[in-house]
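Postdoc handover notes: sequence design on the structure in folder B. Input tokens:
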């Protein structure tokens, strides 16, 4: 049986989940040309895929905040995660099934090319949360569900990684966090420099390039973001925190995100997609966890409710948009 450590609730982070999901929604709406423009909303929406990176960092932080300091039994933890995540995930697959199977088998659309040629795998892998281990098929069935396949690895490893990280002192945890960010930057930087797919243009419109899909979807490529979130959570728990630090942390994180949005066309796509903003997101999460007085608007009940519903919003929105778009 898992015993969750009783700590103060962090409704600010629940609300943050809604904004992360909304960022992804706007990215897909822009990609499907459901809205256009050249203003700030278009610039911010154009990098909405980074919302998934925020989810990965936040997931590591929240799990540490919830479970650190208490015994954790892997089987009990896994059952609890499965019960929390899989029912809504399966429901999203059922909702997506008629659209996906019809389009993949009847329409020659490049986005569904891999699934059309590997229908058995495209049908099986998402059911068992393994689609991201085959990067070319990561977006089969319900495209956004690839991130749940990645999270499944995180959940599997968490009971083993947490005790190892929890033994470290704050200084060592800072090194772990920095090393995770450097690892992600190194891998994505290598891709940007070497361009192993030999692409003339590297961007979110590239859906079938093998190595780019590895960088984007393969679970081990995204593991540093989760461990960075875990390290940040442990630093938070081991520190004498002051709400005064919240403002600078959040400001730095938001500034980094704003600069990334403003100059996204000049930043290598692979780096921006997978690694660049992980440290910025960790700063924002840490700052909001300090619960400064001015963050009271994030404790507003309707906003927290939206945060609790963000998982369903994330899982269902692309299918609803896809049905409308087609």
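Designed sequence:
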């Amino acid at each position: 049986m898992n015993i969750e450590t009783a700590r103060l609730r962090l409704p600010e982070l629940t609300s943050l989940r809604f904004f992360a999901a909304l960022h992804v929604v706007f990215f897909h709406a822009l990609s499907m040309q459901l809205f256009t423009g050249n203003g700030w909303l278009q610039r911010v929406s154009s990098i909405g895929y980074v919302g998934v990176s925020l989810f990965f960092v936040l997931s590591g932080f929240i799990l540490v905040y919830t479970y650190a300091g208490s015994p954790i039994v892997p089987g009990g933890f896994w059952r609890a995660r499965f019960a929390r995540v899989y029912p809504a995930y399966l429901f999203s697959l059922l909702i997506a099934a008629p659209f996906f199977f019809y389009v993949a088998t009847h329409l020659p659309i490049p986005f569904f090319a891999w699934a059309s040629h590997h229908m058995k795998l495209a049908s099986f892998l998402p059911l068992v949360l393994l689609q991201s281990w085959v990067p070319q098929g990561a977006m089969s069935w319900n495209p956004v569900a690839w991130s749940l396949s990645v999270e499944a690895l995180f959940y599997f490893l968490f009971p083993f990684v947490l005790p190892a990280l929890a033994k470290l002192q704050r200084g060592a945890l800072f090194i772990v966090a920095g090393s995770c960010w450097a690892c992600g930057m190194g891998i994505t930087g290598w891709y940007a420099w070497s361009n192993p797919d030999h692409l003339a243009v590297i961007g979110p419109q590239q859906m079938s390039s093998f190595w780019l899909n590895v960088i984007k979807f393969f679970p081990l490529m995204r593991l540093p973001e989760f461990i960075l979130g875990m390290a940040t959570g442990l630093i938070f728990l081991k520190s004498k925190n002051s709400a005064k630090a919240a403002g600078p942390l959040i400001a730095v994180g938001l500034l980094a995100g704003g600069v990334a949005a403003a100059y996204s066309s000049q930043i290598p796509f692979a780096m921006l997609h997978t690694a660049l903003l992980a440290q910025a997101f960790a700063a924002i999460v840490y700052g909001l966890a300090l619960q400064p007085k001015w963050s009271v608007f994030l404790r507003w009940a309707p906003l927290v409710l939206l945060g609790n519903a963000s998982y369903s919003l994330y899982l269902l929105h692309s299918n609803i948009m896809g049905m409308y778009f087609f």
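Context for whoever picks this up: The two ends are 47 Å apart (CA to CA). Don't rerun without checking with the PI first.
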